[in-house]
Amino acid sequence: MILLAPALNLPEFKPPMYAKLQMPVIIYHGTADDIVDPYTVKIIALKYFSNLKHHLVDDDHPYIKLFLFLIGRSFS
Question: Which of 47, 44, 41 lies closest to 4 in space, CA to CA?
Answer without folding.
Answer: 41
